[in-house]
Design a protein that fits this description.
heterodimer; A: mainly beta; Methylamine Dehydrogenase, Chain H; globular; B: alpha/beta; Alkaline Phosphatase, subunit A; 2 domains; two-stranded antiparallel ribbon; 11 helices; about 35% helix
């Protein structure tokens, strides 16, 4: 990805699909973009044709699709049906389907090349898989099933470090755990409490949570995304928020918060590590947030609709999915 | 005695005293106040007459994530369904405990109440009538409290808990007058300032009351009519009754195991308190669980809210049943409205009054009845359409009160339920 200038960020293409897409996979070699979500089906967008419409391909899951990962010709998808499915992206042929979690599979993350796959689900487990064979390698537990106030928690986010040595997981109450993927042990834990709102006097309900996690390119830092203090738990009525942590020390390095009211569902570093980008939406509308990871305030671009996930491509392109389908943004 | 300085609380107390002055009788006995954790004899409870418990889900709970799921449809959301004790009827998977109790529960899936704005809808559902400029109608709970009140009871006829801020709406006594207004508990589940002031013993307090009564009697003989003094006397006695009943609001008197079963959440504690009050003879109680207004993140909201609702309501119904109270207690789960079939961009559901559900249990009902239907996507009612007036009339009937009865308001006879309301006979016992 070349240089980006957030002030010039602009929508250059979009394609509609029904409902909301949660998972995204980019195939730059074939110039194809894939998305899947509420209806369980796979949608594709031909990036070589600027006027292309989204095409419904085939059904992937019997419930919402939560994540997509493309590894060569193999599409790995997770769903609220509790399964992870490996399928051929060209023809939809299912290579294997695994009953992965008891409850919804919330998110997948894979190492570069897809050799190692991680998943988190509503059984509050981190599972580590052989990305090629689908064999379960390890199951780790540690996140509490309930938030401190006694309501159900959830593991919303998982990330794998670029060197495939570590995985990070985050939950509804703001707890983050980092796991060594060689010896399968937890090696760090801290709470990013500002991503969680529970007001015991006025509004006895919880909202927020760790919605996005990403390791820095050198693996030393962990970016977190979500929403700050929510003033009305009926919705995402709170400032969009990102934090950067030295995860080994359990110390927050910096945070960015903007008055734009949105939850940031997905965060990633640019490959050069210079920018953090997160997408989301809420009471203030959709959001693409750019942050340098220091005291400089973030810049917020406003896409149409609430975005759920994105992928960064060559030529300063950002590809996103969310409500209404696909969006392509030029960032320079 | 210090009655506190809270303006809200003072207002409620004034309304309470005013109401008492206007019409309460004086023959009181405190002997029947008080309960124990042990189960009372069902037969004696049955003789006490009907009770009503409102469970108000403030903000508008989703029928899709509770009583009328549509799995696999575009509108259905990600939750799956589970079978219930009623063959062929499935509820959302978030209610496994209530699913097993469906033989004691009655569901109406075909409400079309038209209004989808919080305040107006709450008014409509609470009164069973559209607002009328010329006449202020009382809330259904107030009507029930008036009709079900035991004249000799020193306890309030209607106690309404609303410790959550969302959808907090003070029940209107309307043309029935302030004397029927409920005791409102908004800050805490325990009334404030009903304990004796420091240094004042029960004996001394009783002596003061005797002196007050003596002076009142003399005043009645010499200056005023007995009606007025009777009113004052009964007001004081109601206050005394509430003071003596303070222990009813003390959940520490419940065994820890029971408190744990209900759960130590705000809703769980309200429900347990409601059971104590119903058991002690309060005819109408309202509890509330808020924050159902899930415009964003509907599924995460309901994933948090419904299991708590499922746990608490199932324990409450089981407890009422075990104690022989369910057959004389009508339990009604209500919201302002349901939620939209369409899932919005923020993964939320908005307000929807065209096709939604309520659940009821207990007195006067045919347990296990599932009335009405919606279409495959839950967008319209296809069978058994009912409106807010029909629901109100059905509640009155189930509570053993004639919905066609009149109240004389000035020169105008006003029917208890709206003139064109239809009782849903199919769900009645």
């Amino acid at each position: 990805m070349s240089m980006i200038d957030p002030k010039n960020a602009r929508l250059i293409a979009s394609a509609k699909t029904p409902g909301i897409l949660y998972g995204i996979a980019l195939d730059e070699k074939r110039r194809m973009l894939y998305g899947a979500g509420m209806d369980g089906a796979l949608y594709s967008l031909d990036l070589s044709n600027p006027r292309a419409s989204a095409v419904k391909k085939w059904n992937l899951h019997d419930n919402y699709v939560s994540s997509l990962i493309l590894s060569g010709d193999v599409l790995i998808s997770s769903g609220y049906d509790g399964t992870i499915i490996w399928s051929n992206v060209s023809n939809g042929e299912v290579i294997r389907s695994v009953a992965a979690h008891d409850g919804w599979v919330r998110k997948l993350a894979a190492s570069e090349g897809g050799l190692l796959l991680t998943s988190v689900g509503d059984d509050m487990k981190l599972k580590i898989w052989d990305g090629k064979t689908g064999n379960l390698v390890s199951t780790r537990t540690g996140h509490d099933a309930k938030v401190p106030e006694g309501y159900l928690s959830a593991m919303y986010a998982v990330a794998v470090s670029p060197d495939a040595q570590f995985a990070a997981t985050g939950d509804r109450a703001g707890f983050v755990r980092v796991w060594d993927l060689v010896v399968f042990k937890q090696i760090a834990a801290f709470r990013a409490a500002d991503f969680y709102t529970f007001d015991s006097t006025k509004r006895a309900r919880a909202i927020g949570g760790i919605r996005g996690l990403a390791f820095s390119p050198d693996g030393t830092k962990l970016a977190i995304s979500g929403i700050g203090a929510v003033t009305n738990v009926d919705g995402f009525v709170g400032p969009c928020r990102m934090e950067l942590w030295d995860w080994r020390a359990g110390k927050r390095i910096a945070f960015a918060q903007d008055k734009h009211q949105a939850i940031l569902n997905h965060v990633a570093f640019t490959p050069d590590g210079k920018w953090l980008i997160a997408v989301g939406g809420g009471d203030g509308g959709g959001a693409i947030v750019f942050w340098t990871g220091n005291e400089t305030p973030p810049h917020v671009a406003k896409p149409k609709g609430h975005l759920q996930a994105f992928a960064l491509g060559a030529n300063s392109r950002l590809y996103a999915v969310g409500h209404g389908g696909f969006q392509v943004w030029q960032l320079d | 005695m210090n009655w506190g300085h809270s303006p809200e609380h003072s207002l409620h107390r004034r309304a309470f005293l005013h109401g008492s002055l206007a019409g309460l009788t004086t023959a009181l006995s405190f002997g029947n106040i008080g309960i124990s954790a042990a189960k009372p004899a069902a037969q004696s409870l049955r003789k006490r007459g009907r009770r009503v418990l409102f469970v108000w889900l403030a903000g508008g709970s989703s029928q899709f994530e509770t009583w009328d799921p549509k799995p696999g449809r575009e509108t259905g959301g990600p939750f799956r369904t589970i079978a219930t004790a009623i063959p062929g009827y499935h509820v959302c998977e978030l209610m496994p405990k209530l699913a097993t109790m469906m033989r004691d529960i009655t569901v109406i899936r075909s409400l079309n109440t038209g209004i989808s704005e919080h305040e107006q809808a709450a008014d409509l559902i609470s009164t069973g009538r559209p607002k009328e400029a010329a006449l202020d109608y009382p809330e259904i709970g107030v009507v029930l409290a008036k009709e079900l009140a035991a004249k000799e009871s020193p306890l309030p006829d209607y106690i309404s808990f609303f410790t959550t801020t969302e959808g907090r709406r003070r029940p209107r006594a309307g043309f029935l007058g302030a004397k029927h207004a409920p005791l409102l508990l908004e800050k805490s589940i325990r009334p404030e300032h009903v304990t004796l002031a420091d240094g004042l013993t029960e004996t001394r307090h009783a002596e003061r009351e005797e002196l007050r009564a003596l002076l009142s009697d003399r005043f009645a003989e010499n200056r005023a009519g007995s009606e007025m003094v009777n009113g004052y006397n009964s007001a004081f006695q109601k206050v005394r009754g509430l003071m003596r009943a303070d222990h009813l609001f003390d959940l520490n008197r419940e065994p820890a195991a029971i408190r744990d079963r209900y759960g130590r959440t705000p809703f769980g504690e309200q429900a347990l308190l409601a059971r104590r009050l119903l058991e002690a003879g309060v005819p109408v109680v309202k509890v509330a669980k808020g924050f159902w207004d899930s415009h964003h993140d509907n599924f995460e909201s309901h994933r948090e809210l419904v299991p708590d609702f499922d746990q608490v309501l199932s324990v409450l119904l089981g407890d009422l049943k075990d104690r022989g109270l369910l057959e004389s207690t009508l339990v009604i789960v209500l919201s302002e409205f349901g939620r939209t079939p369409v899932i919005n961009p923020d993964v939320g559901r908005d307000h929807f009054a065209d096709a939604w559900s309520v659940a009821m249990a207990g007195a006067g009902l045919r347990g296990g009845a599932v009335y009405g239907k919606t279409d495959a996507d839950g967008k319209t009612v296809t069978e058994g359409r009912a409106n807010a007036s029909d629901l109100a009339a059905t509640i009155y009937k189930a509570a053993g009160i004639d919905p066609r009865g009149d109240y004389q308001v000035g020169l105008r006879p006003v029917p208890r339920a709206k003139e064109d309301a239809k009782v849903i006979k199919e769900i009645l016992a």
